[in-house]
Structures are given as C-alpha cells and as structure tokens.
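Contributing new records

If you add data, match the layout below exactly. Sequence lines come first and carry their own label; structure lines follow with theirs. Keep one chain per record. Anything else will be rejected by the validation script.
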Amino acid sequence: MIGRRRLLGSIGAPILLSFSQHSWAGKQVEEPLADAVRNALRAAISGQLAPPELEFPDIERRLAYLRWQAAMSERLKRRKPDFRTRQEFLQTVWYESRRAGLAIDLVLGLIQVESGFRKFAISSAGARGYMQVMPFWTRLIGDGDPGSLFHMQTNLRFGCVILRHYLDMEGGNLFMALGRYNGSRGRDPYPNAVFASQQQWTFSGPA
C-alpha cells in the first residue's frame, strides 16, 4: 500500500497502469482474521464518512492546526491545484491519521509513495485510491463494494486502520508494519521509501 512512485490514473476514471520495477504497489496479503479482530476492524472503520468536523480543546491547538494546514497546503499545491480540494484532503488526512493514532507526516509520506496523491490510482495488483487499499478489505471488514475505495475519506480511513492493525500485529515495529502493508515484510526498499518521503511532510510546529 505504501510507495514512493506515482501509480496512477486520471480524475475522470480509474486507469490501470503498468509499473516499472522501481514502482511501489500495494500488495497486502489476505490473511485469516479472528472474529474478535475482524469485529474490531469493522468497528474502527465505522462512523460518519463526511468531511470531518475538527474539534480542538483550546484556541492554541486550533491555531497550530491552521499553521500546519497552511504549510502542507503550500507543499501540496503542485499535486492538487484546487484550493478547496486541497484543504478538504488535508483536513481528512489530519483527522483519520489522528483517529488511528498514526503520525500525520507518515501517512502523507505513505500516500506519496503509494499513489502520488492520485485519488483514482489503481496498481497492477488491483490496490485502489490514495492509500492503495486492496479490494479484499471491503469484503472482510466493509460493505463489500470495492468502488467505495475511490471515496476519499473511505480510502483514508481503511488505509489508516489497516496500517494501525499491522503496527499492532508487529508490536509497534513500524519498519515491519510498513513491509506488511506493502506485501514485502522484512525487506528494506519499501519502508525506506516511505521514511524518506515522510521527511518531506514534517512540520516544525505542533498540529
């Protein structure tokens, strides 16, 4: 699911592209899930799927978020020229990353590697959307509709929940979790690509 190269399609319709040997394409392996795990993952992806309403405990936190959003928006402008689209995307990434307990710059780095920020990306393995989620996940823990993975918040929620699941499986070992997400567990190239991409999305102030 995570990779540095751009995989992808056009905004009008999904396009299946062939990948060079240097491309990263999501290849999560379908594994048996215990009922308790399946139910926990289903619960984790449930809830309202609309542009999230962000809540902050105080004005300082809100201002910190706005500073982060402004900085990330500028960095993302070339990939997403439309301001409103960019703002909604960043708001949703912020929300879903924090909801899953993941670093926001890590998630942005993963998206860059996996899809190059293309909403309708499809890998040669069939992974879909921003975070290159394999369609079997919609059958295991969703509504069975793989087309829903082209919906922005659905894709980001699935991707973040799945990465959180893999991170828990690996006892907090992010290197191994990223490899599992990509179907290359234990090998260096993919995690290293994500870590390198993550550095482009770090922010010096709190968010």
